[in-house]
Amino acid sequence: MAKAIRLDCPLDIESIRSRIRDIAGVRIICSFVTDAYWLADIITSQPDVTLVESKDYIAAPKPNGNRSLYLRRGRPAEERDPRRVAVTAVTACA
């Protein structure tokens, strides 16, 4: 609900279903930058999942200093409801 409100989406089922495209989020904390990229390779190499979007905030950190690797995965388009899962690998070191 918080995401729907943040996106100024009406709070009825049909509006949410059509405008909110991701259903879950996973955050993985890594001790080393190489671990974040290693995990990204494993996640994106799965044959049954497609990479929809990626943002590399390790190579180009956010202005607040956060360094993370953001991946949005999708399921195959032939599935009835191809919702997305957002995966963020965050480095714990500077």
Structure description:
This protein has 3 helices and 4 strands. With 94 residues, the chain is an alpha+beta fold. It has one domain (22-91): Beta Polymerase, domain 2 (2-Layer Sandwich). Strands 1-4-3-2 form a 4-stranded mixed sheet, covered by helices on one side. The longest helix has 12 residues, at 33-44. The protein starts with a helix and ends with a strand.
Short description:
By secondary structure, the chain is an alpha+beta fold.
Which CATH top level class fits? Answer: Alpha Beta
Number of helical segments?
Answer: 3
Shape: globular
Number of strands: 4
* Superfamily (CATH H level) name: Beta Polymerase, domain 2
Kindly report the CATH topology.
Answer: Beta Polymerase, domain 2
What key attributes describe this structure?
94 residues, alpha+beta, Beta Polymerase, domain 2, 4-stranded mixed β-sheet, 33% strand
Walk me through the topology.
Elements: H1 2-6, H2 13-19, E1 22-30, H3 33-44, E2 50-56, E3 68-74, E4 84-91
